[in-house]
Structure prediction request, 289 residues.
Amino acid sequence: MFKFLKKKLGNWAKKVSSKKEEEVEQKQKQEKEEKAVEKIKKEAVKKSKKKKVKKKASSKKEKPSPKEKKKPKEKDKKAEVEKKTKPKEPIEPGKKGFFKKIKDKIQKVKITEEDFEIYSEELEMLLLENNVALKVAEKIIKELKERIVGKELLKKEVEFEIKDAFKEIIKEILIEPFNLIEKIKEKSQKEKEPYVVLFCGVNGTGKTTTIAKIAQELKNQNLSCVFAAADTFRAASIEQIKKHGEKLNVKVIAHDYGSDPAAVAYDAIEYAKNNNINAVLIDTAGRMH
Prediction:
């Protein structure tokens, strides 16, 4: 599943990057065309001015001969020499040269909020179709938006930047510290609904025993729970969880072997809602069954 999701996210990032590159190229092309038109206009104006100057020159009297011209003053000569020999002012460190500015403009792009909104809905659907919970999908999109929108990126690095952002966001979500007791308390207080925990894993890893341990911890924290015996496949699984329930004085919702595990879970959740139970702990069959 993760491999498929990774591929899908990569394709999405590539699509956004390609679209942005196309927009930049289109903009550059348009600017080039506009400059060409502007150049033609300027040349036309220049030619027109030259014609006018020629007409004026022909109507004026003849210019005096070079002999009649006055010799430039010594002071003027000195000023001219100083002007020629004067060193050019160095470019300040904070200022960018003309060509540097053009280069930066061509190579760097910004993903605007409008750009992101165009693709965010598609991204949300992509995540939901790959079994990502709605709240998690919304969090991924929100985090991604904060990381890439308005950020100045190199044109060729847009795709890599989005992929790296995805990696970091998903990594943070997966290793986010999780306090089960606090989560149960929070949901009970705010939503007045039971917190549902589904236990799944390979056979023999201790799912049912872990349920009993968590139930004991909940009791220590003055929190109530109910067991759902949704492992309707393994022999003696229902008896095992019932035994734990008896020891801990916890209600166990169970059906017959071979019955629908989802129905067991549903009944347990309904029982918890009707009896103001804080948590539902659902036991399941091993992943190898």
Remarks:
- The first helix runs from residue 2 to 59.
